[in-house]
Every structure is written in structure tokens, then in C-alpha cells.
Specification:
Elements (H helix, E strand, L loop, with lengths): L1 E3 L4 H10 L3 H7 L6 E3 L5 E3 L5 E3 H7 L4
Parallel strand pairs: 1-2
Antiparallel strand pairs: 3-4
Amino acid sequence: MLFETPCCAPCDELHREGFARAEVRGLLARFDVVRLTLADHAAVIRPTGERTTGEAWARALKAA
């Protein structure tokens, strides 16, 4: 789960440099990766089956 924000320098660096590395891409290929923005109001279903929004989930995880 990646929680990001638009115009975020660290997020941009992660995509530009971190995800450009072959070893990182190889490790991430083992996972299902989902990207959400911290202010996302769209409905999502968590792995537990609970319905929420990206924003509420980020707050519950203290990522926002």
C-alpha cells in the first residue's frame, strides 16, 4: 500500500530513483501494490473486507 500526495518531492524521488532500481522492482513484483492519495475519497475495500476510503484508511494507519 502506497499512500502518496500530488506534488510530493519524496514521492517523486521514490518513483524516479527507488522504483527505477532493478532490485527494488524485483522485490515489488512479489506483491500486489496499490497506490492511493492521502486525500482520496473514493471507496476502497480493505483486505479485511471493510469498506472505507483512502483518506480514512491512511488516517487509521496514522499515515496522514
